[in-house]
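Lab notebook page, bench 4
Experiment: in silico fold of construct C2
Operator: M.H.
Input chain length: 187 residues
Purpose: comparison with the prior construct
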Amino acid sequence: MKSGNFMSRIGKKPIEIPQGVEVKIDGQQVLIKGSKGELSLEVRPEIRVEAKTGQIFVAPQLETKKTRAFWGLTRALLQNMVKGVSHGYEKKLEIEGVGYRANLEGQDLVLNIGFTHPVKIKAPQSIKFSVDKNTITVSGIDKGLVGEVAAKIRRVRPPEPYKGKGIKYAGEQIRRKVGKKAVTTAK
């Protein structure tokens, strides 16, 4: 790497602030408010964040290899926060299997998926569950938290490769395996 060639393709792009989204920068603390809620991020000291003319700019303060990685990461996290407070995020999961079902109990999700007891998953703050037949929708404003909760639900009963029973992401392809076959004798 040449010493003068210090750029991050993602980090140098400005973030557009949509109508109805408010950005406050207080030192290294960035607070983003929108119609869906508010999120905050503590930015690393090597990164500088500025908001002007309807855009957020992210720039490094020091030039090190580590700073370049944090530059792009910080910009991506801020972009996800802006999208989250204005539009929100959601992940869909599908349940496959005879007798497998999910229902809501208040804010919590209750899964009946072949165990001797129902599995109850509490909704973290700012996360909402909805159930429609065999589809579970996890929605919220924090992209990381939505993905984490969806992964936690999938981990309860991951899809198995022989019959495909279990909980999978919508659109996920499960590699199927062939089961045992009767051995035929050749003469």
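Observations: The radius of gyration is 23 Å. The first strand starts at residue 15 and ends at 16.
Next step: discuss at group meeting.
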